[in-house]
């Protein structure tokens, strides 16, 4: 309960910190209320003719004057408009002068309210391409749009806002949550390793074949004609072209699958057929990193994306902690063996004879006997054998063995020269 409360407090603190950052980001944006403005919630358009004369604008000729205008774009509240999580807003600037020579119009899209109108750095000004300019922004962001017209001509521009919903961002969020939740389970599944490796092997073989065919076709353009003549000489007519193509495709797929299968057997599995622990941990963290990247890409607003990632991470950690805690409680059950208890009780006060007295192998005892490696192995084997004989001969152990016969399993003797059996008959 204490751990759950601490986790909940940490989650609330992280959410509060992100909210404060979002509020600070919004509070930093302070502009004059006299500027023409557009609100994302309304998605309206605005036509204007820049009229503010500015001298010394970066990027313009020294001493020349330009005509500028600034448009304020107000975003939505994050907490009240979560339905726009997967959306983005497109800001469009259109040149409305259809006659005469088009004016030289450049725009600067920024959020620095401390800059004067038309005073953006030279590298931030962008020209209209074919009379239009389009950029995307978060529906929760607040930005400024500076419009600059150089020369003596006066122009009219239109600023439009439009919201677009992206389905792939929703798919990224769902896949990211699923992948982060089941990362540990997937990293310990043989189906994932074999399926992924076989798919990758097939793709590699197909790419190699396509590359080779492309190179050969580029160097020698008469290869198709030569192959057709060879097939005809072998007695394979045009009616058999499709079966031959299917057979070759099947060979390519099987070659790629065998390559992936071999890679899993050599790089992933241990000698006893289980998944290597280091490989499983690496794959699990790889899944988590990919899942985090998907969640961060689920929204164009970075604050909401990070908030969603942290919330999902804390919820998964909390559920995992609870599951492991309950599993530990269910699995922890003290098991006592009557035979072992009887054996310990029987030998608790029994005094060892001189022949069975063995001095410590690591303390500095004067009567300590020094063993070689072979003598020590023989000694441990003989001691274990005597202890097991004494245990098996006790009547309590016999009764315990009869009562718990269903729990006793005899494993086959391990043969290091024989390869382990796999779940596939042909492996």
From TrEMBL:
Which keywords accompany this UniProt record? Membrane, Nucleus, Signal, Transmembrane, Transmembrane helix
For this protein, the record's InterPro entries field holds: NEMP_fam
Task: Supply the name of the protein.
Answer: Transmembrane protein 194
Provide GO CC annotations from the record: nuclear inner membrane
- UniProt-annotated location(s): Nucleus inner membrane
Specify the signal sequence span. 1-26
Instruction: Give the membrane topology.
Output: Multi-pass membrane protein
Q: Name one Pfam family in it.
A: NEMP
Give the transmembrane region(s): 166-184, 191-220, 240-263
Record family assignment:
Belongs to the NEMP family.
């Amino acid at each position: 309960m204490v751990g759950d409360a601490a986790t909940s407090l940490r989650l609330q603190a992280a959410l509060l910190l992100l909210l404060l950052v979002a509020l600070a980001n919004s509070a930093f944006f302070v502009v004059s209320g006299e500027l023409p403005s557009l609100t994302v919630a309304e998605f309206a358009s605005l036509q204007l003719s820049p009229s503010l004369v500015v001298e010394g604008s970066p990027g313009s000729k020294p001493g020349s004057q330009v005509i500028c205008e600034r448009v304020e774009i107000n975003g939505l509240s994050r907490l009240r408009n979560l339905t726009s999580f997967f959306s983005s807003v497109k800001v469009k600037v259109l040149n409305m002068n259809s006659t005469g020579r088009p004016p030289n119009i450049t725009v600067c899209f920024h959020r620095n309210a401390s800059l004067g109108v038309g005073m953006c750095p030279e590298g931030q000004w962008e020209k209209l391409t074919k009379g239009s300019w389009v950029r995307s922004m978060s529906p929760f962001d607040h930005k400024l749009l500076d419009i600059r017209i150089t020369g003596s001509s006066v122009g009219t521009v239109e600023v439009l806002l439009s919201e677009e919903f992206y389905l792939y961002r929703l798919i990224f969020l769902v896949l990211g949550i699923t992948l982060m939740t089941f990362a540990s389970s997937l990293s310990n599944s043989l189906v994932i390793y074999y399926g992924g490796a076989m798919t990758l092997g097939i793709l590699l073989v197909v790419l190699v074949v396509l590359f080779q065919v492309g190179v050969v076709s580029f160097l020698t353009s008469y290869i198709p004609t030569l192959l057709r003549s060879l097939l005809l000489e072998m007695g394979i007519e045009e009616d058999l072209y499709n079966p031959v193509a299917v057979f070759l495709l099947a060979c390519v797929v099987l070659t790629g699958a065998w390559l992936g299968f071999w890679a899993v057997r050599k790089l992933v599995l241990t000698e006893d057929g289980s998944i290597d622990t280091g490989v499983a941990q690496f794959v699990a963290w790889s899944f988590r990193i990919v899942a985090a990247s998907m969640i961060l890409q689920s929204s164009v607003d970075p604050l909401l994306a990070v908030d969603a990632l942290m919330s999902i991470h804390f919820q998964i950690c909390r559920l995992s902690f609870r599951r492991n805690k309950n599993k530990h409680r269910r699995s922890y059950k003290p098991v006592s063996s009557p035979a072992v208890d009887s054996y310990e009780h029987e030998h608790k006060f029994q005094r060892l004879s001189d022949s069975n007295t063995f001095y410590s192998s690591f303390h500095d005892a004067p009567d300590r006997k020094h063993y070689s490696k072979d003598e020590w192995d023989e000694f441990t084997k003989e001691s274990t054998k005597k202890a097991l004989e004494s245990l098996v001969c006790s009547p309590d152990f016999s009764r315990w063995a009869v009562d718990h016969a269903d729990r006793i399993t005899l494993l086959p003797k391990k043969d290091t020269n024989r390869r382990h059996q796999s779940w596939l008959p042909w492996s």
